[in-house]
Design goal:
It contains 13 helices and 18 strands. The chain is α/β, with parallel strands linked by helices.
Length: 391
């Protein structure tokens, strides 16, 4: 599968291209940068606007085979002269440009961080940090530390190439970023009014499981920093209306763990939570009763087998068992349990197995409860103390 490049790589490439045209005086159509992963990124330079003291241009985001919502957007950089400070860019013996902590000295010999002379700001379409626990402090623009270092490194190299000793201001912006961000996790994480410029390697990995897991970890850590010692996690918003009607609870407030139930428990334990409530549809949670902690269908799909096993334990006849095994959904399978009059016994047994495997995963380090439901049939199982924890 094809790799792509992060918004951080695009921002660094656009900034380098703009700096090159500003300081060199020549228009360029392509630019190359080095990513932290050690892979070079060559990008077309688009929508060039050259002024006397500033240049802006864009690089188009390419996400490879990853289903990234930012794929195809234009990431812009505007580089302008900021002549109030003279700088000295060290040579390779004094500074390795790939070092994110690299320093540069002024002409007077005073040592100062190179970022003092390359000012990085966020403009249109770049989100603002409103909650603690993120890469940047509250009130800052959502341009993470690795992209900031990449921009600094690439622009510094251009400044050295053209013997430029003045300060440069770099503004990163994404037209339409505010609207795009509404389709991402950013508002939940406390990043308002725009997208983030992110990436630790500069590379987008196809089917970026790691990115999703890091989003879950970040949200759990944020809420813990804000003082929460209990957390609700849910695979998604399936059952939103049920939870509102049954408990008056907005499922949007839960941390969405997707299929990564086991990983989310590990993260909650590591973050120091004391209590955890897992709530979800039987189609996902039935798998947990068999010890499956990644509920994606490509990992395991034994929903009917687990329901049939529970039914057999509760005295189901062969006809009921065959009906369950031939069902195409857990909703349909539950109908066979109900018709046989064993639905309560089966759901009680299944809930016990779910709690057994959840507690086994947590190694007794966190108090875990569970609520399981069906869109068609309503509440199917609720462990002791789960409703109180929800409140």
């Amino acid at each position: 599968m094809k790799q792509g490049f992060t918004t951080g790589s695009c921002a660094a490439a656009a900034a380098k291209a703009a700096a090159f045209m500003l300081l060199g005086g020549n228009r360029i159509d392509q630019i190359r940068i080095a990513t932290p992963a050690g892979i070079d990124y060559s990008a077309d330079v688009l929508d060039i606007n050259i002024g006397e003291n500033a240049v802006s241009c864009a690089v188009r985001k390419y996400s490879g085979d990853d289903p990234d919502i930012t794929d195809g957007i234009l990431v812009y950089a505007r580089v302008e002269l900021n002549e109030d400070t003279d700088i000295y860019i060290p040579d390779a013996k004094e500074w390795n440009g790939s070092d994110t902590q690299a320093q540069a000295g002024t002409k007077t010999g005073k040592i100062t961080d190179v970022q003092d002379h390359i000012v990085i700001e966020g403009g249109e379409g770049i989100g603002t940090i409103t909650r603690p626990g993120l890469d940047q402090p509250v009130g800052s623009k959502a341009i993470n530390s690795v992209p900031r270092a990449m921009i600094t490194d690439e622009v510094s190299q251009v400044a050295k190439l053209f013997d430029h000793t003045g300060s440069l201001k770099v503004t990163i912006y994404v037209p339409g970023g505010r609207e795009l961000a509404e389709k991402t996790f950013n508002p939940r994480l406390g990043i308002e009014d725009g997208i983030s410029i992110i990436g630790t390697s500069g590379i987008v990995e196809p089917m970026s499981t790691r990115a999703l897991l890091e989003t879950i970890r970040l949200e759990l850590n944020q809420r813990r920093l804000e003082g929460a010692d209990a957390i609700v996690i849910s695979p998604g918003n399936y059952g939103l209306s049920f939870m509102k009607e049954q408990y008056g609870y907005d499922l949007n407030k839960a941390v969405k763990c997707s299929n990564y139930i086991g990983d989310s428990i590990d993260m909650a334990v590591a973050a120091g939570y004391k209590h955890l409530l897992l709530t979800g549809h039987i189609g996902k949670l039935i798998k947990v009763s068999g010890g499956i902690m990644n509920t994606h269908s490509r990992e395991a799909d034994c929903r009917m087998e687990l329901m049939a096993a529970a039914a057999a334990r509760c005295g189901a006849d062969p006809k009921t068992l065959l009906g369950i095994l031939d069902s195409v959904s857990t909703e349909e399978a539950y109908g066979y349990l109900k018709a046989a009059g064993i639905e309560q016994a089966c759901m009680s047994y299944i809930m016990k197995r779910i709690l057994y495997h959840l507690n086994k995963r947590a190694e007794g380090k966190i108090d875990i409860r569970c609520i399981m439901y069906s869109v068609k049939w309503g509440l199917l199982g609720c462990s002791q103390g789960a409703e109180e924890m929800l409140v």
